[in-house]
Specification:
Number of helices: 1
Helix content: 10-25%
Strand order of the largest sheet: 1-2-4-3
Largest sheet: 4 strands, antiparallel
Structural class: alpha+beta
Number of strands: 4
Order of helices and strands: EEHEE
Strand content: 35-45%
Distance between the termini: 27 Å
Radius of gyration: 14 Å
């Protein structure tokens, strides 16, 4: 798990070295879908990097977080 700020953008990444999965395969459940919806609800974007046998990395990015300090 990592969390860093780059040029006022917040990036949160979660990575494992598990078995990975095929992102195009329709899987039951709402885990990734729920994460996508929550990140988008606060104007962020979610990137999923995975493939069979190579683990998974999920990155949430939030632009211009300096604006949040003034809310």
């Amino acid at each position: 798990i990592s969390c860093q700020v780059k040029n006022q953008d917040l990036e949160i990444a979660i990575e494992d070295n598990g078995k990975g999965f095929d992102i195009t395969q329709n899987v039951s459940g709402f885990g990734l879908q729920g994460m996508q919806e929550r990140v988008m609800a606060v104007s962020g974007n979610l990137e999923i990097q995975t493939s069979q046998g190579n683990g998974c990395k999920i990155i949430a990015r939030f632009r211009n977080i300096a604006v949040l300090n003034h809310l």
